[in-house]
Automatic annotation (TrEMBL):
Belongs to the endoribonuclease YbeY family. Zn(2+) binds at residues 109, 113, 119. This is Endoribonuclease YbeY. It holds the Pfam family YbeY. GO terms for cellular component: cytoplasm. One of its GO terms (molecular function) is RNA endonuclease activity. One of its GO terms (biological process) is rRNA processing. Single strand-specific metallo-endoribonuclease involved in late-stage 70S ribosome quality control and in maturation of the 3' terminus of the 16S rRNA. InterPro entries: MetalPrtase_cat_dom_sf_prd (IPR023091), YbeY (IPR002036), YbeY_CS (IPR020549). Keywords: Cytoplasm, Endonuclease, Hydrolase, Metal-binding, Nuclease, Ribosome biogenesis, rRNA processing, Zinc.
Length: 141
């Protein structure tokens, strides 16, 4: 049974409109030609995500998201996506997008990573941003 789960580590945070979020994420995955198996979103603090970034990626910087692809079968989506709510709040204010829109952008950004999109170069980052915008425009909540 496909599942999208929301967890929290070291903070108290519950996303709003969970059913609509799940449907939107699943629709994005299906639209890209993949099959959802299990996707876990773990909301945490800057400090918690920094520790993950250091331990697993050898990066000593704050970030808004770290995505782990646990898929074993091509075309299946299984993953863990860690999101810093501290970064979401700060970036939402900084870019004047608001917390909810920034959260949704980062949520779909993580899913897009699992779907094969990257953001390591200017060209791939531009494509990733276009895809984020495309799927954000499809939200109906």
């Amino acid at each position: 049974m496909p599942a999208i789960n929301f967890f929290e580590e070291d903070i108290s945070f519950k996303p709003k409109q969970k059913a609509q979020l799940r449907r939107w994420i699943k629709d994005t995955i299906v639209a890209e030609g993949f099959k959802l198996k299990e996707l876990n979103y773990i909301f945490c603090s800057d400090a918690y995500l920094l520790q993950i970034n250091q331990q697993y990626l050898d990066h000593d910087t704050y970030t808004d998201i770290v995505t782990f692809d646990n898929s074993e079968v091509e075309g299946d989506i299984v993953g863990d996506i860690f999101i810093s709510i501290d970064r979401i709040r700060e970036n939402g204010a900084k870019f004047k997008t608001g917390e909810a829109d920034e959260l949704h952008r980062v949520i779909i950004h993580g899913a897009l990573h699992l779907l094969g999109y990257t953001d390591k170069s200017a060209v791939t980052k531009q494509k990733m941003t276009q895809k984020e915008d495309e799927y954000l425009a499809k939200r109906d909540f």
